[in-house]
Specification:
By secondary structure, the protein is mainly alpha-helical. Helix content is 63%, strand content 2%. The strands form 3 sheets. The protein has a 3-stranded antiparallel beta sheet, with helices on one face. A two-stranded antiparallel sheet has the order 4-5. The longest helix is centred in the first third of the chain and has 27 residues. The two termini are 59 Å apart.
C-alpha cells in the first residue's frame, strides 16, 4: 500500500508522466531548504555553510548516488533541481564579479561548496552533457564565471575541486555563444596574479581563457576532463578555428613530446622515466586532442602534425599507463575518421527484390537524392546482397592508424581493447567493401593465432592469449552491430565465437577467460541485430548450434554476469531469429488452451507478432486456424474464431490483396454450425463471433463482394449474431463495444433498430433487457434518448439503470444533427444523469446504487469532453439544473468509494478547466460568481499539486482517489456562498464521516476548515477571492446539522450519520465558537429525532450527542440532563443502561449540573442500580433519581 501511494504521489508531481524517483518528496524538500539557506547574500562571507545545510547536502548526494545505475529515473525532476541550484550559483558569481570590479572582495570562495558538490554529483550520475542542458548560458554570464574560476585557481583548495569542475563545464557551454568573444571582452581588471607556467598572453579574455584551460589540463581527476571539453569547444568556434586551432594542436603535440622525453624525430629518451606529473601532462594534452578531433570537420588544421602524432602513437614510452594508451586509441580513431568521408557514404547492403536496378533505386530514394557520383559500380553477390563499391582514395595515414588500433586489440587492459574495438568498427564503416573485408578477415585471424584444430573440429585454445581473444571478439561485435560481417565471414566466425563461450585456461590454482566468455556473449547478441537478410539466413542455418551453446552457458557457467549475458543474447535471438516458431506455437497450441484467460492473452500476443511475419502467417498458419473455427471442441472453436478476427484486423492490408486468404477470412461465420450457437457453449461461441465481427468492422472489410443484395444478406446475418450474443451472454460490455464498431461501418436498418428497441420492453427477461439497454447507445433516434433518460431513474433493476446511464453517455457522444436538437438531447440527458447521481439503492450486495452513480459520472464526463460548451447550455436553460448538478458532483467528490470519488473529481475538473464558463445567465446572474469562486478555490486549494494558473490545470493529474488530499481540497468549496453547492457538499461529508476508516479523515477535514471560520455569519456577502476570508461561519455548520436532522425521521441514511458527525465535531472542539442561540435548534432537532424512538442504534447516538451538547452551556446541560432522565425509564434495557451511564458522566464526572449535597446519593443510585433489569425492578431507583436531579435542574 505504501509503495502504491508513493507511486501515485510521484505521478501526480510530474503530471501524467510516471516516475520512479522514490525519494523525490524528501529530496525536493531538502533542496528548497538548501537553496533558501545558500541564496542568502549575507551568509556568503562565511567560510563554510551552516551545519544543517551541510548535513542536507550530504544526504541529497547519497540519494543521487543510489541512482548511478538507473540515472534516467531522475529526469522528471532534473530541470527543476539543476535550475534552482544554478540560480544560486549564477547570483553568487555575479556578486563576486561585481565586488572584484569594486576592489572590495568580501565573498568566501568556500561558502557554496555544498551547492557545487550537488551539481557535481548530478553530472557524475546523469552525465555532464545532460546536466548542461539546464545551465544558464547568457552573454552576461561569461566574464563572471571566468572571474570566479580564476579566483578558484589562485586560492587553490583541494576540497573545492567540484566547484572548479562545474565552472569549467559551465564555461564549455558559454564558449558556444554565437557572438564574437572580442565583442564581450570588457578588459578584465583586478584579476589576482596566477602562475601560468611561463605561458605568454596578450591579456585579452580569449587568451586568458585558453591559458587557464591549459593550466587545468595537467590537473588530476575530473578537472582535466572539464578543461578538455571547454578548450575543444572554445577552439572549434568560427572566430578561433582558423587563427588559434592549428597553434593549439602544435602546442599539445609539443607538450606530449616534452613530457614524454621524445626528441623531434620521435625517438625515446632512454635516460628519462615518466613520472606522475609527466603522465598527467600527456593525458591532458591527449584528452583535449580527442575532444578537438571530434569537433573538427576536416584534417586541414593538423598540418604537419600528422606524422609526428603517428610516431607518438607508435612509441613504446606510454606502455606504462593504461589511461594514456586508451586516450591514444581514441585519438587515433578520431584522426582516421577525419580523413574519411562521412558516414552517409559508407558501404550499404540491400536485400534484392526483383532486380539490381530496383534496389539501386531504393538506395537513391532512401538517401533523399544525395549525390553518389563516387559510386563506380555495383555487384550482386550470390547471397542476395548488393555491394556499392565507392571509388574513394584512402590515405595511407588511415592504414597506419588502423594498424595501431588492430595492435591495441592485444593490449593487456580492457579499457584500451574496448576503445580500439569501437575505433575499428567506426573506421571500417566508412571504408570500401574490399578493404572492409580485409579488416574483418584480419580481426577473425586473431582468434586463429596459436590455436590447434584437430580432425574432429575441436579447437584447442590452451596456447592462446586471453587478451587477444577478448579484443578480437569485442571488435567482431562492433563490426556485426554495424552490418559489416558478410555471410561468408559469418560461416567462418560463428564456430570460433561458440568456442569463445567456453573459453577458460587454467593458470596454476586459478583460471582466466571470464572476460572472453562475456565478450563472446556480446558477439552473439550483436549477431541478432545483423540488418541484411542474407546474414540472417546464415544465422538460421546455424541457429541450433548457437542456441545450444548459449543455453548451456546461461545455465551452467560459473560467473553470474556471464550467465546473464548469455541469457540476454539468447533472448535477443529468440525475438528475432525464432519469430516464426513462436508464431507457430502460438497459433497451434496456445490459442486452443483450455483456460479462456490464456487464450485471450494468446490472441493479444498474436496481434503484436502478426505484423512482423505477415507472409508466414498468411500462407502457413491461417488455413489451419480457419479450419478449427468449426471444431466440435468449445475451447478450440473459441480460440480459432477470436484469432482469425485478430489476424483479419492487424493484417487487413496484406489479406485483402490475397483473394484466397480473403475468402477464408470471410467464410468463418458460414462455417460455424448453427447448433454451436444454440447448444451448450453457445455464449462463448457467440462472444468469439462478436469479437471476430468487431475486428472485421474496425479493419473496414468489404462484405458481399460489391453485390448489394449479398451484402445486405450478410449484414442481416451478422446483426442476428449480435442479437443472439446480447440475449445469451452475461458479460456484454465487450459485445456492445464490438457492436458499436459494426454499426459505425455497416450501419443499421430501420427494422434492426426496431428490433433493439423491442428487446428493451418491460415484459422481456431481465438479462436480455439489460443487455439491449446498453446497446441502445449506438442508435441515434430521439425516441431512444427519451427512453434512456427514463430508464436511468425508473429502471426496474439497478443493472438496467446502470446500463442506461452508460448508454446515455455513448448516445450523446455519437449524436449528430442540428444544434437545437443536440442541445435538447444534452439537456434531457444531463437531467437524467443528475437523477442517477441520487441513486442510493442498497440490497444484500451492498451499495449497488454506486454502480449507477459511477456510470452517471462517467457519462457526464463524456458529454462535457465532447462539447466544451455543454455546461454553458445548462446555465442558459433557465432552470436550476446546472447548480444542482454541480452540487451533486462536489458531493460525489466526498464519497467513501475511491473510484467513484476519482470519477467525480475528473468531471469537476473538466467542467471548471475545460468548459467555456462565460455563462452570463440572465435567469440566474449568481451562477457566474459561484463558478468563479469554485474555480479559484479548487485551483488554489492547499492540497493542490502545483501553483500553476487555474486555466492550465492538468485533468486527471490530481489524485482524487486519495481521501486525505481529496477531502482537504474539496472542503474549501463550503465557502461558496450558494446553498445549492454548500448543502450537498456538507451532506456528503456527513455521510462519509460516519464510515470507518474514512470517517476520521472526513471529519478532520471539516474540523480543520472550521478553524478558519468566524463564530457567527458575516453581515454581508462578498465574492470570495483566492486570499479572502470564507463567507460561512460555525453557526452555519450548526444550522446545516440541524437541517439534516429535521429530514424524514424514518430515513436512517441521513440522520444516523448526522448524529455521529455532530458528536465528533463537538468532541474535536471544532464548534466551540458558535453562538449560544445556534445550539438550541440543534438540541430541539435531536429531541425530535429521539421522540418515541425505539431503534436502539439511533437512540444511542442521540443519547451520546445529548451528553456532548451538555458541555456547551449551562442551559444545554439542564436540557440534556432532562432528556437523559426521560430515557432512564425507556422500555429497552440497553437504552436505560446507556442513559444512566451518560447521566453519570454528565453529573458526577463533568459536573455540568450542580446537584449540591445530593451528589453522593445520585452517584450511588446511578452506579449501583442494575438498570438492565426489568422496568419494575428499577422503578423506585428511577423515581428517586428523577426527584433528586429535577429539583436542581428546575431551580
Amino acid at each position: 500500500m505504501a509503495d502504491s501511494a508513493q507511486e501515485s504521489t510521484s505521478t501526480a508531481d510530474v503530471g501524467s508522466v510516471p516516475t520512479f524517483f522514490w525519494e523525490h518528496v524528501s529530496f525536493l524538500d531538502s533542496l528548497e531548504k538548501v537553496v533558501t539557506s545558500a541564496s542568502d547574500p549575507d551568509s556568503w562571507p562565511l567560510p563554510n555553510a551552516p551545519d544543517e545545510e551541510q548535513g542536507l547536502v550530504r544526504e541529497m548526494c547519497k540519494i543521487l548516488e543510489t541512482y548511478q545505475e538507473k540515472p534516467t529515473c531522475l529526469d522528471p525532476y532534473l530541470e527543476r533541481t539543476v535550475s534552482k541550484l544554478m540560480a544560486v550559483v549564477q547570483e553568487y558569481v555575479s556578486a563576486y564579479h561585481d565586488s572584484l570590479e569594486a576592489m572590495c572582495v568580501s565573498i568566501s570562495m568556500t561558502r557554496l561548496n555544498g551547492i557545487f558538490d550537488l551539481l557535481y554529483t548530478i553530472c557524475k550520475v546523469r552525465g555532464y552533457k545532460i546536466a548542461l542542458r539546464f545551465f544558464p548560458h547568457t552573454v552576461a554570464d561569461v566574464e563572471p564565471v571566468f572571474t570566479t574560476l580564476w579566483r578558484y585557481s589562485v586560492d587553490f583548495n583541494a576540497s573545492s575541486w567540484p566547484a572548479r569542475y562545474v565552472l569549467l563545464i559551465w564555461l564549455s557551454l558559454l564558449a558556444m555563444i554565437p557572438f564574437d568573444i572580442e565583442s564581450i571582452d570588457s578588459g578584465l581588471s583586478g584579476l589576482p596574479a596566477i602562475d601560468l607556467h611561463g605561458c605568454s598572453n596578450d591579456g585579452t579574455l580569449l587568451s586568458l581563457w585558453i591559458e587557464l584551460g591549459k593550466l587545468y589540463l595537467s590537473r588530476p581527476g575530473c578537472e582535466m576532463e572539464g578543461a578538455a571539453v571547454m578548450l575543444a569547444r572554445l577552439l572549434s568556434r568560427k572566430d578561433t578555428v582558423t587563427l588559434l586551432q592549428p597553434a593549439f594542436i602544435e602546442w599539445a603535440v609539443c607538450e606530449i613530446n616534452e613530457a614524454a622525453g621524445l626528441n623531434e624525430k620521435g625517438k625515446d629518451n632512454p635516460k628519462q622515466r615518466l613520472d606522475i606529473e609527466s603522465v598527467l601532462r600527456i593525458n591532458g594534452a591527449l584528452r583535449v586532442l580527442c575532444h578537438l578531433f571530434a569537433a573538427m570537420d576536416s584534417p586541414r588544421a593538423l598540418g604537419k602534425q600528422v606524422p609526428v602524432l603517428q610516431r607518438i602513437f607508435q612509441s613504446e614510452t606510454f606502455e606504462q599507463n593504461s589511461i594514456t594508451r586508451k586516450l591514444i586509441s581514441k585519438a587515433t580513431q578520431r584522426m582516421a575518421l577525419l580523413m574519411l568521408p562521412p558516414t552517409q557514404l559508407r558501404t550499404k547492403h540491400f536485400h534484392t527484390r526483383p532486380s539490381v536496378r530496383n534496389n539501386l533505386g531504393e538506395f537513391e530514394a532512401k538517401d533523399n537524392g544525395a549525390d553518389y557520383s563516387a559510386v563506380s559500380n555495383s555487384t550482386e553477390n550470390y547471397d542476395g546482397t548488393i555491394e556499392q563499391v565507392l571509388d574513394i582514395e584512402i590515405p595511407e595515414d588511415v592504414e597506419c592508424f588502423l594498424g595501431i588500433l588492430l595492435h591495441r586489440l592485444h593490449d593487456k587492459d580492457t579499457i584500451v581493447r574496448w576503445s580500439a574495438s569501437k575505433g575499428v568498427g567506426r573506421i571500417t564503416e566508412r571504408l570500401p567493401v574490399a578493404l572492409a573485408r580485409e579488416i574483418v578477415t584480419a580481426v577473425a585471424n586473431v582468434l586463429k593465432e596459436e590455436t590447434i584444430v584437430d580432425n574432429r573440429g575441436l579447437i584447442d585454445v590452451s596456447m592462446t592469449a586471453e587478451f587477444s581473444w577478448h579484443g578480437a571478439l569485442l571488435c567482431l561485435a562492433e563490426l556485426s552491430r554495424r552490418g559489416l560481417l558478410y555471410p561468408q565471414h559469418l560461416r567462418d566466425i560463428i564456430p570460433w565465437v561458440i568456442r569463445g563461450l567456453t573459453y577458460e585456461i587454467q593458470r596454476g590454482d586459478y583460471s582466466v577467460g571470464a572476460n572472453v566468455r562475456d565478450a563472446a556473449c556480446y558477439v552473439m547478441w550483436s549477431f541478432a541485430r545483423i540488418p541484411n537478410a542474407s546474414g540472417k539466413c546464415v544465422l538460421a542455418e546455424m541457429s541450433t548450434e548457437m542456441a545450444t551453446a548459449l543455453i548451456s552457458v546461461a545455465v551452467f557457467d560459473r560467473e553470474s554476469n556471464i550467465r546473464r549475458a548469455a541469457s540476454a543474447a539468447f533472448q535477443e535471438h529468440v525475438g528475432r531469429q525464432y519469430r516464426n516458431p513462436l508464431l507457430h506455437h502460438l497459433c497451434t497450441v496456445t490459442i486452443y488452451h483450455w483456460d479462456i484467460k490464456t487464450r485471450e492473452l494468446a490472441v493479444k500476443a498474436l496481434r503484436e507478432l502478426a505484423p512482423l511475419s505477415p507472409a508466414y502467417l498468411r500462407k502457413v498458419l491461417l488455413p489451419g486456424i480457419v479450419a478449427h473455427t468449426s471444431s466440435p471442441f468449445l475451447a478450440v472453436r473459441h480460440g480459432a474464431i477470436t484469432a482469425v478476427g485478430a489476424i483479419a484486423e492487424v493484417l487487413a492490408t496484406h489479406l485483402t490483396a490475397d483473394e484466397a486468404a480473403s475468402e477464408m477470412i470471410l467464410a468463418v461465420v458460414g462455417s460455424v454450425p448453427a447448433r454451436y450457437m444454440e447448444d451448450f457453449g453457445a455464449p462463448m461461441t457467440l462472444a468469439a463471433l462478436a469479437s471476430y465481427l468487431g475486428s472485421l468492422s474496425r479493419a473496414g472489410w468489404e462484405i458481399g463482394g460489391g453485390d448489394n443484395n449479398t451484402g445486405n444478406n450478410i449484414q442481416n446475418k451478422y446483426f442476428d449474431i449480435f442479437v443472439q450474443a446480447l440475449t445469451t451472454c452475461k458479460d456484454v460490455m465487450g459485445i456492445v463495444c464490438e457492436f458499436t464498431a459494426f454499426v459505425d461501418v455497416y450501419g443499421l436498418k430501420a427494422e434492426q433498430r426496431s428490433c433493439i428497441e423491442e428487446y428493451t420492453r418491460v415484459d422481456r427477461s431481465g438479462t436480455s433487457r439489460e443487455s439491449f439497454v446498453l446497446a441502445l447507445g449506438v442508435l441515434s433516434d430521439p425516441d431512444v434518448a427519451n427512453m434512456l433518460c427514463r430508464l436511468v431513474s425508473d429502471g426496474a433493476s439497478v443493472e438496467i439503470r446502470r446500463n442506461a446511464a452508460m448508454a446515455l453517455g455513448q448516445f450523446c457522444e455519437r449524436a449528430q444533427g442540428n444544434e437545437r436538437q443536440e442541445h435538447a438531447q444534452e439537456l434531457a440527458a444531463v437531467s437524467a444523469l443528475s437523477r442517477g447521481l441520487d441513486d442510493h439503492t442498497v440490497d444484500n450486495r451492498g451499495d449497488v446504487g454506486s454502480w449507477v452513480r459511477k456510470e452517471s459520472l462517467r457519462s457526464l464526463a463524456r458529454i462535457f469532453e465532447s462539447n466544451d460548451r455543454a455546461f454553458v447550455g445548462l446555465c442558459s436553460s433557465g432552470n436550476d439544473l446546472s447548480m444542482r448538478l454541480l452540487g451533486q458532483i462536489v458531493r460525489a467528490a466526498t464519497e467513501k468509494i475511491d473510484k467513484l470519488r476519482a470519477e467525480a473529481g475528473r468531471v469537476l475538473e473538466i467542467i471548471l478547466f475545460r468548459q467555456h464558463l462565460e455563462c452570463n445567465s440572465a435567469a440566474d446572474p449568481h451562477i457566474d460568481d459561484c463558478l468563479m469562486q469554485l474555480k479559484q478555490l479548487i485551483a488554489n486549494s492547499p492540497a493542490h499539486f502545483s501553483s500553476t494558473e487555474s486555466d492550465n490545470q492538468e485533468i486527471g493529474a490530481f489524485n482524487w482517489a486519495d481521501p486525505k488530499s481529496a477531502f482537504a481540497r474539496i472542503v474549501h468549496v463550503l465557502s461558496v456562498d450558494d446553498k445549492r453547492l454548500r448543502q450537498p457538499l456538507f451532506e456528503g461529508f456527513v455521510l462519509t464521516g460516519s464510515v470507518e476508516p474514512l470517517g476520521k479523515i472526513a471529519v478532520k477535514a471539516v474540523a480543520t476548515y472550521a478553524e478558519t471560520l468566524a463564530g457567527t455569519e458575516p453581515t454581508c456577502t462578498t465574492a470570495v477571492a483566492s486570499d479572502a476570508q470564507p463567507t460561512w461561519s460555525i453557526d452555519g455548520i450548526l444550522n446545516e446539522l440541524t437541517r439534516l436532522l429535521l429530514t424524514d425521521r424514518h430515513t436512517s441514511r441521513i440522520i444516523n450519520p448526522t448524529l455521529i458527525v455532530a458528536d465528533q465535531l463537538i468532541e474535536q472542539g471544532a464548534l466551540l465558537t458558535a453562538s449560544t442561540e445556534s445550539w438550541i435548534p440543534l438540541y430541539r432537532a435531536v429531541q425530535r429525532v429521539a421522540f418515541k424512538l425505539r431503534a436502539p442504534i439511533r437512540l444511542t447516538h442521540c443519547l451520546k450527542l445529548y451528553s456532548s451538547l451538555a458541555l456547551m452551556s449551562d442551559e444545554l446541560a439542564r436540557l440534556a440532563a432532562e432528556s437523559l432522565l426521560a430515557h432512564i425509564g425507556h422500555p429497552t434495557l440497553k437504552i436505560r443502561q446507556t442513559a444512566a451511564d451518560f447521566l453519570f458522566g454528565l453529573v458526577c464526572i463533568h459536573g455540568a449540573v450542580d446537584v449540591g449535597n445530593d451528589i453522593e446519593e445520585i452517584e450511588q443510585l446511578l452506579a449501583e442500580t442494575e438498570w438492565s433489569l426489568d422496568k419494575d425492578n428499577v422503578r423506585n431507583a428511577r423515581n428517586r433519581l428523577v426527584e433528586l436531579v429535577r429539583q436542581h435542574i428546575r431551580q
